[in-house]
Amino acid sequence: MGYNPAMTEHAPLAVFGGTFDPIHYGHLRLAQEMADSLAAAEVRLVPAGVPPHRATPGVSPAMRLAMTRLAAADNPLFTVDDREIRKGTPCYTVETLAELRAEAGPRRPLVLLVGADAFLGLASWHRWQELFAFAHVAVAQRPGFAMESWATAMPLELREEWESRLTDDIASIRGQPAGRIIARETTRLDISATRIRLMAAAGKSPRYLLPDAVLDYIRSNHLYP
Ligand code: ATP
């Protein structure tokens, strides 16, 4: 029998953070497929606050938030959480997860969704080992980051966490609030925000790589000139 989120008291809350500059189908497909495999009740999209080292001139956090809202608008599974942008200062995922844990209560499974590239860099995140106290981590494929080579690409500390926390069992994710890692094959879409920005700047159309509503917003606000 499949899991029916409507019938369970503690359907997972998936949390998906990113710069979303702009949000694209690589993000949305990952969120949809992970939500389906976990039978998550909601995917919370959390656009990152001020990332001083990578903000694109001309694209404000408010605009990244607006694009995220447009992309999420027609999917009842997706909600947009603007807390990192509202803070206006750089914030850390561990702090966002601590807040979400406080709001969700101690028992509900929280699952942080990440692409393979983000996961392989996890050990550089602020207080990264505490992430597992607040949430599970679900890792998705990303072209260029073959799953077979992940173990060797991980720094030792991360590999230790990977080996002790990895599970293939959705029930163990749904049955506890936090602390496991799950890896999933998702449709590999070789789309990146960087390439979309470069295409737009070169006068090429990024159409079909991201939702039309986001593309219209980019055009009418003359983003990525
Ligand atoms: P940029 O090119 O500006 O670095 P990006 O396209 O990598 O942006 P981010 O907002 O930095 O997007 O990514 C947020 C999250 O989405 C990260 O966990 C990243 O691994 C994941 N992600 C982004 N694009 C894809 C993709 N095409 N397939 C799988 N995961 C992706």
| Shape descriptor | globular
Cofactors and ligands present? Answer: adenosine-5'-triphosphate
Spell out the helices and strands N to C. Answer: EHEHEHHEHHEHHHEHH
- Arithmetic mean of pLDDT: 92
User: How would you name the oligomeric state of the polypeptide chains in this document?
Assistant: single chain
- According to DSSP, the number of beta strands is 6
- Main-sheet strand order equals 3-2-1-4-5-6
Q: Can you tell me the residue ranges where pLDDT is under 50 for at least 5 consecutive residues?
A: 1-8
The largest sheet, given as strand count, sense and whether it forms a barrel, is: 6 strands, parallel
CATH superfamily: HUPs
Give the radius of gyration. Answer: 17 Å
Strand content: 5-15%
**Domain module tally:** 1
Q: What is the CATH architecture annotation?
A: 3-Layer(aba) Sandwich
Question: What is the helix tally?
Answer: 11
Task: Give the N-terminus to C-terminus distance in angstroms.
Answer: 51 Å
What is the helix content? 25-40%
CATH level-1 class: Alpha Beta
Give the structural class.
alpha/beta
Under CATH, the topology is which?
Answer: Rossmann fold
